[in-house]
TrEMBL record:
Alphabetized SUPFAM superfamilies for the sequence: NAD(P)-binding Rossmann-fold domains
Protein name (database record): NAD-dependent epimerase/dehydratase domain-containing protein
Pfam families reported in the protein's UniProt record: Epimerase (PF01370)
Molecular functions (GO terms): aldehyde dehydrogenase (NAD+) activity
Domain NAD-dependent epimerase/dehydratase as annotated: residue spans: 23-218
InterPro entries registered for this protein in UniProt: Epimerase_deHydtase, NAD(P)-bd_dom_sf, NAD(P)-dependent_oxidoreduct
A GO cellular-component term linked to this record: cytoplasm
Length: 294
């Protein structure tokens, strides 16, 4: 049976919202919106359904890798938050294609992407108009997701916002294990600029994008910090009374880290958050990493 909405998208007295990929950030969004929205949250794990219920969402068991399980999501809500990552292999994001295949016309969708789509920018200040240049397979899939979503939005008359996100941190999302193991960081001469957002501020940014987006617009969810990566590790170490990591030149460090970590360590950019503040009106709860660690 098709759900009918009034002009504000209300059903059963509250606006309906569908969250696809309701992990840590999704739960923070639920905490911000519970009571004001009827929130449906998709999970692939039956054992997480009670956690979602306790948070204030209506859990739905579905799998983005199995399109037949998605049909029931089609008419649930006029607003969708797509927080699910692509599948771990290939050049296209099949999961995002499966999502858009079942969504009705004139949906409002916020997609959480990654700043990795820019590749290495040599430490340059980057705004949302910079062309993408992904350097690893994960970022290539994210670029594909963004492009397929833009094409879907044009076809369906839907409103799309893409939120590009750098390193997410929170009290329970810090590189403490890395520091305890003494994994080295880059020497100062070789170090890269890195960008951060507190998980609570990311949740608030996604909600702001949902409410205030300009259609087909990209936004950076990033704080005001201007840090190099090893300085971030030092700050976390100091806050938790752990030894600062040793620093190694680039050629020596590459032999000691995984290829995925090496990719992360060799991309340098500084993201502008002007649109975040002027268009979405977000006031950061944690303007810098130092504020978050405090």
């Amino acid at each position: 049976m098709q759900t009918h909405y009034n002009h504000a998208g209300h059903a059963l007295g509250k606006p309906r919202l569908l969250i696809i990929g309701c992990g840590d950030v999704g739960l923070r969004i639920v905490a911000l919106l519970r009571g004001r929205y009827r929130i449906f949250a998709v999970t692939t794990q039956r054992e997480r359904m009670q956690t979602l219920r306790d948070a204030g969402a209506i859990p739905l068991l579905a799998d983005l890798d199995r399109p037949a399980t998605l049909a029931r999501l089609a008419q649930l809500a006029p607003t969708v938050l797509h927080l699910a990552p692509p599948q771990p292999e290939g050049a296209i994001d099949r999961r995002t294609r499966h999502v858009t295949a079942i969504l009705p016309e004139r949906t409002t969708l916020v997609y959480v992407s990654t700043s990795g789509v820019y590749g290495d920018c040599g430490g340059a200040l980057v705004d949302e108009t910079r062309p993408v240049q992904p350097r690893n397979a994960r970022a290539v899939r994210r670029v594909d997701a963004e492009r397929s979503l833009r094409a879907w939005a044009r076809r369906s008359g839907s409103r799309l916002a893409i939120v590009r996100v750098p390193g997410i941190y929170a009290g329970d999302r810090l590189p403490l294990e890395r520091l305890q193991k003494g994994i080295p960081a880059l020497a100062e001469a070789d170090d890269v600029h890195t960008n951060h957002i507190h998980a609570d501020d990311l949740a608030r940014t996604v909600v702001a994008a949902m409410r205030r987006l300009q259609p087909q617009r990209i936004y950076h969810a990033v704080d005001d910090s201007d840090m190099k990566m090893a300085d971030y590790f030092d700050a976390v170490a100091d806050a938790h009374r752990l030894p600062r990591p040793p620093r190694l030149p680039r050629d020596q460090l590459q032999a000691q880290v995984t290829p995925a970590m090496w990719s992360f360590l060799t991309e340098s950019r500084r993201l502008s958050n002007r649109r975040l503040k002027t268009e979405l009106g977000v006031r950061l709860q944690y303007p810098t990493v130092a504020d978050g660690l405090a």
